[in-house]
Amino acid sequence: MKSFYLFNSRILSHIIFWIGILFIYTFFPYIYRGNFAAILKTNLLFLPQDIIAVYFVLYVLFPKYLIPFKFVRFILFSILTILFLTLISVFVSYYILPSTELYYTNRSVEEQFANSLIILFSITGMAATIKYVRLNLIHQFQRKDILMQQMETELKYLKNQINPHFLFNSLNNIDELIFTDQEKASNAIFHLSEILRYVLKETESNTVSLSNEISFIKNYIEFVSYSFKSKKFISFKIEGNYKSLQIPPLLFLPLIENSVKYVDRKSTIPGIAISFFIDNESIHFKIVNKYTGMIKKQTHGIGLKNLKRRLELIYPDKHSLDIEKTASQFIVNLKISFV
Question: Is the pTM of this model over 0.85?
Answer without folding.
Answer: no
